């Protein structure tokens, strides 16, 4: 059995050595890299990959379509990528009891910083509250969570405070929900 597997593996290697990947295969690989970059929230890398796919195979309809969609949706894709940074950080314990939104955000910032440092990652951008009508200072936040992504903790805090988040390039902007 073992010798059969070795023979099959050797035959596969010889077949690949005789038939190197074609431009069409390379184009498909570039296209798939573009899809992965989009999912990771990196529109620049996605654009590069789709453009490379089209250079290798100008008839690659999916790459042409995704490149067009990327032009329309690159801001949304980048925002999703920035939001995903908060999902990657797991907070072991979040406990708040009747604190204002500003204090809850300061506490969350400290927890995120600690966990990012332990994981040897860069801390994601901090929070900036944009509340010209001073509506967000009225609510109190109470929360008790364990082993939760930072994004989930933020969503709970914001829902109690009647707020929403916008993930900008250098900060998470906290706004009144309505």
UniProtKB/TrEMBL annotation:
It comes from the Bacteria. This is Tetratricopeptide repeat protein. Residues 1-17 form the signal peptide. It holds the Pfam family TPR_16. InterPro entries: TPR-like_helical_dom_sf (IPR011990), TPR_rpt (IPR019734). Keywords: Signal, TPR repeat. It comes from Luteolibacter pohnpeiensis. TPR repeats lie at residues 27-60. The keyword Signal applies. The lineage of its organism: Bacteria, Pseudomonadati, Verrucomicrobiota, Verrucomicrobiia, Verrucomicrobiales.
